[in-house]
Amino acid sequence: MERTLIIFKPDAVNRMLVGRILARFEDKGLRIVAMKFQQSPREQVERHYAVHKERPFYGSLVEFMTSGPVLLAVLEGPGAIEVVRNLLGATDGREAAPGTIRGDFGLDKQYNLVHASDGPDTARNEIALFFSPEEIVEYTRAPDGWIVSK
Ligand code: CMP
Q1: Which of 115, 116, 127, 131 is catalytic?
Q2: Is 52 annotated as catalytic?
Q3: What per-residue confidence (pLDDT) applies to 31?
Q4: Looking at ligand 1, which residue's alpha carbon is closest to its atom 2?
Q5: What is the pTM of this model?
């Protein structure tokens, strides 16, 4: 089992796409193990995107990510990190394949609806940045045995 952090960005919230996008993750069989709706503090966003600090879009990215509320979630499943990134599609909605979330709902590189962790170390650090261990819920669902074989 793997966990990944996703952020429904302010464009997803303002465009009222959160429910439809979340349904895609649930439809795939991924398990929601944590969720939080918040207006992100600037320092937290700066830490989250510290790896992009030298990029020309960093300032505008921080502005965007603090411009309105976001929904944070931790999703769990086998290979969840890659599964979620494949569901999202390419960073730029114009290039993302039809059928992916960004390919179906977006046209922009910055306003790309959802952030997802890009590897196991990043996932661990990002989950720890936004959630305390007590906020992550371990449970099983009745259909789990029909989603992943033994
Ligand atoms: P995300 O997966 O959250 O990781 C970094 C974010 O920076 C990315 O999604 C986009 O929202 C944004 N981004 C990446 N490249 C560019 C770019 N060239 N111009 C503007 N924003 C970008």
Answers
A1: 115
A2: no
A3: 98
A4: 115
A5: 0.97
